[in-house]
Design goal:
Length: 336
């Protein structure tokens, strides 16, 4: 009996220790984590594990990828926050990331946002060249609890090599130069695609992006989690760059219109109402499950209210996506 009491006391102590780390959803910007996280109830082991990891990952000191040693940042715009918000998207690889445009320039210096090991990949169909910087994430006791990789895509490694910049397999410090050239042939003009990924130390293919072979890993760009890289039962997910680079001015162009949308009641037992105002024309309203599958779809005009009957769907987390070709908004929906 005494052993049982001691064991229960230890379990309670462990839960209390983990409970000090907030849920991912409680932050200003949510990271996009694997479905196992969202399917795990509060207090569940995997959710507690990820909450701890995310807490320490967000403490990793970052710098803006364009910021040079003198503190200067070139004038740039973000034409879209690719994957802003949480939830699956129509691209099949929807996740938080940022696309930076420096006019139409291809000669742009790019710096490591944090310290880590560089891995490069060439001639990827969608992104030509990219490199990653991977670092270990430690807890307060110095234990490695996972890894974080920042990825810099649409760069031209051939031109970098010609300029004697070859970093594959090397360690870089925060602020070190990692590339000097953006790829000129990128759709929409030259720009930097910047994203952050979270991994467990046991996950394979940690620097793999959209196909390719990096350090002997040839993992595909998506498994059964159709809107991300990871299998639902492994990995941590994608980080929102705004959680890390929160001290720099990002000039983010807001690409949503949540003030023009009402979703209620949320949580709901069965009936969900989605109301849009007259500022939005020719909107498409979609409801997606946690696997990224569209389960309801409606085309509406201005001043519309859509009533969705969820009685035939199981309880849990869903995503509503409202778009009109120019703007979009994604919100979580909970069915009790």
């Amino acid at each position: 009996m005494r052993k049982l009491i001691i064991l229960l006391g230890l379990m309670s102590l462990i839960n209390n220790i983990y409970a000090q780390y907030p849920n991912n959803e409680d932050g200003q910007y949510e990271d996009m984590l694997t479905p196992e996280y969202y399917n795990t109830p509060n207090g569940g082991a995997f959710r507690l594990e990820v909450n701890k990891f995310v807490h320490y990952a967000r403490q990793q000191p970052f710098q803006h990828p364009f910021k040079d040693s003198s503190g200067q940042i070139p004038t740039y715009t973000i034409h879209r926050g690719f994957g802003d918000g949480i939830g699956p998207g129509g691209t099949g690889s929807h996740h938080p990331a940022l696309d930076y445009y420096v006019g139409n320039s291809t000669q742009v210096n790019i710096y490591a946002a944090h310290e880590g090991i560089v891995a490069i990949s060439r001639d990827i169909a969608r992104y030509r060249h990219y490199l990653s910087v991977t670092t270990d994430i430690h807890d307060s006791l110095g234990n490695i609890i996972g890894e974080m990789a920042t990825l810099y895509a649409h760069i031209d490694l051939d031109l970098d090599s010609a300029a004697n910049l070859n970093l594959d397999g090397q360690y870089v410090s925060k602020g070190d130069l990692v590339s000097m050239h953006l790829y000129s042939g990128t759709m929409g003009g030259p720009h930097l695609h910047f994203e952050i990924r979270y991994y467990r130390t046991t996950d394979a293919g940690i620097e793999d992006f959209y196909g390719g072979n990096v350090r002997g890993n040839t993992s595909p760009s998506s498994g059964s989690w159709t809107y991300g890289f990871w299998n639902p039962n492994t990995g941590y997910g994608f980080a929102d760059p705004l959680n890390q680079i929160n001290s720099e001015s990002l000039n983010v162009v807001e690409n949503n219109f949540q003030n023009q949308i009402a979703i209620y009641p949320n949580p709901t037992k069965n009936i969900l109402s989605i109301e849009i105002d007259g500022m939005i024309e020719n909107a498409i309203i979609e409801l997606l499950n946690l696997q990224g599958q569209i389960i309801e779809r409606y085309e509406v005009d201005i001043n519309s209210t859509v009533i969705i009957d969820l009685s035939n769907y199981p309880s849990g987390l869903y995503f509503s996506r409202i778009s009109n070709g120019k703007k979009y908004y994604i919100a979580k929906v909970f069915k009790e």
